[in-house]
Amino acid sequence: MTKNRNKHILAALLVFLLGTAPCLALAQDFALAIYGGQLTREKWENTISPTADFADATIVVAAASWTACRLFDGRLSCELEAQAGKYFGDQNHWEFNLPILGFRWHRFPWDDHLATSLAWGIGPSYATRVPEIELETNDDSNRWLVYWFAELTLGPPTANWEVLMRLHHRSDAFGIVADDGGSNALCAGIRYRF
Questions:
Q1: Closest CA to 163 of 128, 184, 124, 190
Q2: Domain tally for the chain?
Q3: How many C-beta atoms surround the C-beta of residue 71 within 10 A?
Q4: What's the domain range around 64?
Q5: What is the rounded CA–CA span in Å between residue 36 and residue 28?
Q6: Roughly how many angstroms between the first and final C-alpha of the chain, as a whole number?
Q7: CA–CA distance from 66 to each of 42, 80, 81, 186 (Å)?
Q8: 65-123, pLDDT tens digit by residue?
Q9: How much of the chain exceeds pLDDT 70, in percent?
Q10: DSSP per position, 13-40
Q11: Which of 14, 54, 101, 187 has a CA that sits 20 to 30 A from residue 68's CA?
């Protein structure tokens, strides 16, 4: 069963990477980000609720990304991102998310005053051991899961830096990669583009 799951993960990853291949040479901008956040004991859709139950665990993440292409006159970009994260508190393992395929929308009516973007990305996630919080909030979990994020960025219109707010999510992908498992963290940080 695990071999079939790994084959599905590799096949999905290959489709994502091949899907971005036609636009790899169109843009060459890079970014580094650092962000941190608090894990919750909630499902992802309840994580931003004012009554969310927060766990005694935090994560700090360093991420590097590359904008592979821009579409629709620069309104939408396709990005590849790699992350290394360290947990503290009730769990203290490392997490690696690589490669993450992300899509970012850049154009909003107020961008002349406040540069804004919305992004969503997905890719494989590896934890150096099965996370404690995932075991507490689910029936089971796995070291290998799917990672996805939802992100809002805000910054000065002409600056190379931006503040980011991100939902950092590990998922069993509706049972495709694991029978159960997953976690959510509400995060904030900063990104520098070059």
A1: 190
A2: 1
A3: 12
A4: 2-193
A5: 27
A6: 43
A7: 31, 5, 6, 23
A8: 999 999 999 999 999 999 999 999 999 999 999 889 999 999 999 999 999 999 999 99
A9: 86
A10: HHHHHHHHGGGTTS--EEEEEEEEEEEE
A11: 187
